[in-house]
Design goal:
Elements lengths: L2 H8 L1 H12 L24 E2 L6 E3 L8 E5 L4 E7 L2 H6 L11 E6 L5 E6 L7 E6 L5 E8 L13 E6 L1 E6 L2 H4 L17
Parallel strand pairs: 4-5
Antiparallel strand pairs: 1-2, 3-4, 5-10, 6-9, 7-8, 7-10
Length: 193
């Protein structure tokens, strides 16, 4: 029997059941680690090439990482943790897009220090949120411009701030989330090394 026939025969309740079932999101498999999909590059994601100069802008690779939920005064962020030197060095390089409310938490083992970040091979514009060991935002570098691969090091955008943590979000996300200097974030313990 066709759907139209069911609606004529049974009326509005069938339409509501069909609508509700069509709108239900697919269940999420908890074994799928968030940070092996978005925003970090995926092994099954083909390289992206620029239409202008055919330069590769994304290399597929897997990256060992773990997700962490960080609460802000107005939202919860889902962040990939960069808690060792290799992960901190790579960061979000070659990631073409950082979804709203997601990004990366850089955790350092040596407490509150002046941190200098640069956008080497970072192809998505970012907001950088510097956070001290107590969870207070000390500064925000908004809309830090992306860098095309092959850009000379002296032309790569750089930002610095004070903190034990740095959170990278997609450009504009700090303003969208109304993050401000002095806001306190709830960051679960991270064993940085």
């Amino acid at each position: 029997m066709k759907v139209g026939g069911m609606v004529r025969r049974y009326g509005v309740p069938v339409l509501l059941v069909l609508f509700a079932s069509a709108q239900s999101p697919a269940p999420v498999d908890p074994s799928q680690a968030w940070c092996t999909t978005i925003p970090l590059p995926r092994a099954d994601f083909p390289s992206l090439k620029s239409n202008v100069d055919t330069q590769t802008i994304h290399q597929p690779r897997t990256m060992p990482c773990r997700p962490l939920d960080v609460r802000t005064p107005r939202a919860t962020l889902r962040l990939a943790v960069a808690d060792d030197a290799a992960l901190r060095e790579h960061g979000l390089m070659n990631v073409p897009f950082v979804p709203a409310g997601q990004g990366m938490l850089f955790a350092f083992p040596d407490g509150d220090q002046r941190r200098s970040f640069w956008m080497k091979n970072t192809i998505a514009s970012l907001d950088m949120v510097f956070v001290d060991g107590g969870g207070a935002i000390t500064s925000i570098a908004a809309n830090v411009p992306a860098t095309a691969p092959g850009t000379p090091d002296d032309q790569v955008a750089r930002r610095d701030g004070l903190g034990r943590y740095v959170i990278e979000l997609g450009a504009g996300d700090a303003a969208r989330l109304s993050l401000r200097v002095g806001d306190r974030l709830s960051i679960p313990p991270v064993g940085a090394r």
